[in-house]
Write a structure and sequence with these properties.
By secondary structure, the protein is α+β, with helices and mostly antiparallel strands. The protein has one domain: Clavaminate synthase-like (Double-stranded beta-helix, 4-Layer Sandwich). Helix content is 17%, strand content 27%. The strands form four sheets. Strands 1, 2, 3, 4, 5, 6, 8, 15 and 17 form a nine-stranded mixed sheet that branches. Strands 7-16-9-14 form a four-stranded antiparallel sheet. The longest helix is centred in the C-terminal third of the chain and has 15 residues. It starts with a strand and ends in a 15-residue tail after the last strand. Bound molecules: fe (ii) ion. Fe (ii) ion (FE2) binds next to loops.
Length: 292
């Protein structure tokens, strides 16, 4: 059966049918990759997978990243150190088996505080609550295209310092010290407008809002400009909502999208396994042809 794709919104995202990730062939992978490059976020439903099969498919995209250092530390699937557990479940000793608990996770793109951030991540749903826990995505090239030219001309000369203190659940990463001064917190600067390394598409690259700072500006001016940028980046026209079903695999481009998660009831369980692909690129400023 040929692979078929169906746009999720007019802007980005595609649901893909006709491929089983458990035994995906090289030819199918090539088709899937092309669809992903165009749509940024892929949703594949009803995937019957084992952890080794999920890991095998993930590794077709590149070298896997070990789990990030979250407030809960590094949480991996037993026997699979490169698969990360996102869960509010606790083991028999009361220790969380995964990261992020049951609260909201704020808009972010994964591990942008690294010099070479991961370029792709994917989640596979294992158990789900009856309500809540939806994941939202925002399309950064579309957000950039929606901005007035004057604003784009201003921000394409600037960088953002991407804070590495807090995880997306708002917890201090293990071993880090709380610091709520954006000017002085630990982080890595990246240009605000970058090129997607493979397609060279121009895109915003924002990381996360908390503790973000634009070097060279006063804190007040940095906060005001970041709020303006984030208004475009998270506008409903450039976002989509994913309501999870069991067996979903959702793959996203980490350079061109951000994501967030809704909270869900604390007395219910939500467990997903995540893989992440190492990035080989330092985010590079995109220069407009007429400005070059
Ligand atoms: Fe994330």
């Amino acid at each position: 059966m040929p692979i078929a794709s169906f746009p999720i919104t007019p802007v980005f995202g595609a649901r893909v049918e006709g491929v089983s990730l458990s035994d995906i062939t090289a030819g199918e992978f090539e088709q899937l990759y092309a669809i992903w490059q165009k749509h940024h976020v892929l949703v594949l439903r009803k995937q019957e997978l084992t952890n080794p099969q999920f890991e095998r498919f993930s590794a077709m995209l590149g070298e896997l990243d070990p789990p990030p250092n979250q407030g809960a530390g590094r949480k991996s699937v037993p026997g699979h150190p490169n698969l990360y557990v996102v869960s509010n479940r606790k083991d028999g000793a009361g220790v969380p088996i995964g990261a992020l608990g049951d609260g909201e996770a704020q808009w972010h793109t994964d591990m942008s505080y690294l010099e070479r951030p991961p370029f792709a991540s994917m989640l596979w749903s294992i158990e789900l609550p009856e309500t809540g826990g939806d994941t939202f995505f925002a399309c950064m090239p579309a957000a950039l295209r929606s901005m007035p030219r004057q604003l784009v001309e201003r921000i394409e000369r600037l960088s953002i310092k991407h804070d590495g203190t807090y995880d997306s659940g708002g917890n201090v990463r293990k071993g880090m010290t709380a610091n709520d001064n954006p000017m002085h917190s630990t982080g890595t600067p990246h240009p605000v407008v970058i090129e997607q390394p493979e397609t060279r598409e121009r895109t915003l690259y924002l990381g996360r809002r908390r503790n973000a700072y634009i070097p060279g500006l006063s804190l007040e001016d940095s906060e005001a400009l970041l709020d303006t940028i984030w208004g475009y980046a998270t506008a409903p026209q450039v976002t989509l909502r994913h309501q999870w079903q069991l067996g979903d695999v959702v793959l996203w481009n980490n350079f061109t999208t951000m994501h967030r998660r809704d909270a869900f009831p604390a007395d219910q369980f939500r467990t997903l396994h995540r893989s992440q692909i190492k990035g080989n690129h330092v985010p590079t400023a995109a220069v407009r042809k007429e400005a070059a």
